[in-house]
Fold this protein.
Amino acid sequence: MLLESACLNFAPNIRSPVATLRLEKGQKVAAKKRKTSADLLVGIDLGTARSAVVTSAGTAMWDRSLVGWPRDRVAKKLIGKSVVIGNECLQHRLALDVTRPLRDGVIRKSTTRDEAAIHALADHLLELVGADDDQRILAVIGAPAEASAYNKALLKDAFAELVDAAMVVSEPFTVAYGLDLLIDALVIDVGAGTIDLCIMRGTVPAAEDQRTIPQAGDFIDQQFMERLRAQYPQAQFTPSMAVQWKEAHAFVGDAHAGPLEVSMPVAGAPRQHDISAALRGACESILPHLREELRSLIAGFDPEFQERVRQNVLLAGGGSQIKGLDAAVEEMLEELGGGHVRVVEDPLFAGANGALAIAQDTDPEDWDRLEQAK
Ligand SMILES: Nc1ncnc2c1ncn2[C@@H]1O[C@H](COP(=O)(O)OP(=O)(O)O)[C@@H](O)[C@H]1O
Ligand SMILES: [Mg+2]
């Protein structure tokens, strides 16, 4: 069992002088490193849709957070495996029962199968790392902010068998840490299952600095499909077609003008359909929820620093790629006095890179302590 207190004891090596000042109370700054080549540091972003892993040796890999079990003996024989993980699940999806362990098992209380799925996913990610036998593996795992204490323990158990020491931290924090946005900043992580907002005060964020909105990428997908069905009742499409269209064209407001034509069969014959109105409506359906949480989170922040936070907003996660979302959030901030929003450059690896930065900045003695406490 890994230490629950690990996250609290984590002492970031803050690079900004302002941040160091704010950190002095109750937090120590990391000592000089004495890592050996026998240590492989690993940063993991365990997402509901996609998981990414990066290492101090330069490896950067990602896969979909999917775990599938063959539906029956024939399926098992066909696939030649008792469990299938990641992208491969999509190739064999008709022969598999597929779960998204982080979505299905972390938010609600997990079943035995969810637990097995999390173990399988953890195992797969560590295989991607390709560590040498004699290396100590020290991992920082960014998990959905929503993961409850119960499920954090589950995540730690899953990784305990695979690594020498690990810490579980909330994902928006890993993103913020990796980009040095540790103080007077707001991270809005638009994922598949949730949007996570996290205010950075120069310390490890407390519960009141974070908000989780259940309307995110999956919600947009549902809305999009409902709108398409209502608009074109005769047209046929699958959920994966809808997601592909969304990921290629997603936009809000006036970020796109004119029709967006795609082909959908009607009574077996391909026909062009304009999806722009359905897609815009679906993407905009998350905005009222975001506006409300943004307002309440900023209003709860120290009035002296609200202005600085508004000027320092980062959009992260796959949903940050929705065209015009940055402008829409700036418009929301306008109502609160104005602000500046930027979009993360590498939404796929920002969380994992931040987790690796935390691993690198963690005091070696803290790693030793975590290893002994296992
Ligand atoms: N270009 C894009 N435009 C809009 N949404 C996107 C785009 N790329 C990915 N997404 C959506 O982002 C979500 C996945 O984001 P991600 O940050 O990987 O989620 P998680 O952290 O929950 O695994 C999915 O709903 C996906 O469809
Ligand atoms: Mg994520």
